[in-house]
Amino acid sequence: MSASKIVKRFGISIAALALVGTGFTGTASAASSDCPEGWFCVWHGTDYTGRMQKVQYDNADLSQYTVFANGSLSGYNNGNNCDVNVYAGRNYTNLIATVKRGTKGTGTSTRVKILSNKWVNCI
């Protein structure tokens, strides 16, 4: 599969992750609350299950973090003032999507590698 097709697939997946239902009940709601205020968090499983990893600053290389490098399936931008750009490549390359502040996604069936992130559109 070509790099552009992979990036497109990742883009579709993260967009789906960011747009999947905003109303949560039960376990999903409680687990997303594990993401500290001011952070962008991702979980290895859908519905905020499995291992969680989080970032608070711009990161040019997230490959050292298991959940980001091996595919994230649910996420939450709990940032205070900013949206977060997520990238399929290191050093802010191959933009996947901009995840708006406050956006939650319970997951998709397609894994999404996030290898860098940058906080943007800060107010």
Give short descriptive properties of this protein.
four-stranded antiparallel sheet, 3 helices, Peptidase inhibitor family I36 protein, signal, Gamma-B Crystallin, domain 1, single chain, 123 residues
CATH H level: which superfamily?
Answer: Crystallins
Instruction: Report how far the terminal alpha carbons are from each other.
Output: 39 Å
Q: What is the CATH topology assignment? A: Gamma-B Crystallin, domain 1
Which CATH first-tier class would you pick?
Mainly Beta
CATH architectural designation: Sandwich
Largest sheet report:
4 strands, antiparallel
Helix content: 10-25%
Radius of gyration over C-alpha positions, nearest whole angstrom = 13 Å
Report the portion of residues in β strands.
25-35%
**What strand line-up does the widest sheet have?**
2-1-3-6
Mean pLDDT: 79
Structural class: alpha+beta
Shape: globular
* Record field, number of beta strands: 7
| Series of secondary-structure elements, N-terminal to C-terminal | HHEEHEEEEE
DSSP helix count? 3
Total count of domains: 1
Low-confidence spans = 1-29
Keywords: Signal
Organism: Streptomyces genisteinicus
Signal peptide: 1-30
Protein name: Peptidase inhibitor family I36 protein
